Amino acid sequence: MKLLLVDDHPLFGVGFAHALTHARPDFEVQTALSLAEGVARASQCAPDIVLIDYRLGGEDGLEGLRLFGARHPLVSRLMISGDEEPALAARARAAGAAGFIGKSRSVAHIAAALDEVAAGGEAFDVLASRTGPQVASLTPRQLEVLLLVAQGRQNKQIAAELAIAERTVKLHITALLDTMDARNRTHLLVQARRAGLWLAEE
């Protein structure tokens, strides 16, 4: 399996690659120190999976997920981070990640997550273990809408930001209210937090 790690800490990149390839000789790991370098490297090495660090110096790893999705749509994307909060994992999933891996995880755990994603699945154990089943069952698009609701966006603004019809936004919010057993938008956010998803508000 070909892997590309985008992380601005060279020492972590070297250690990650060494530990992973030592445990799994079938893994081939290349590294990049920035999103631009990562995108260029992906064009050369055609990785099966790209792992993008959340904190990339002055760059945003979440935007990196979207960038790779636009430039290399056939490459699976995972976010890797020392911040292992469910809200960040949810944001990564909404940005197109197929998985979220905490840097504190063991090599065996990381390898298992990579195998799961390579097989076409998802690897969001942070969501599954630290939030209620309702949150874990939300689709990436529903999570995007939920995060924007938490930021105070109205339906028309959400539609414009996600480039979808306002009617579609209403359908997503109706589904969210039903899934989270919420009466209205305010109660929806209360229910999401009760389920373990600590949403950042602007």
Automatic annotation (TrEMBL):
CDD domains: LuxR_C_like (cd06170), REC_NarL-like (cd17535). It comes from the Bacteria. Transmembrane segments: none annotated. The modification 4-aspartylphosphate is found at D53. Residues 131-196 form the HTH luxR-type domain. GO terms for biological process: phosphorelay signal transduction system; regulation of DNA-templated transcription. The keyword Phosphoprotein applies. Gene3D superfamilies: 3.40.50.2300. Residues 2-118 form the Response regulatory domain. Pfam families: GerE, Response_reg. Keywords: DNA-binding, Phosphoprotein. One of its GO terms (molecular function) is DNA binding. PANTHER family: HTH-TYPE TRANSCRIPTIONAL REGULATOR YHJB-RELATED, NARL SUBFAMILY. This is DNA-binding NarL/FixJ family response regulator.
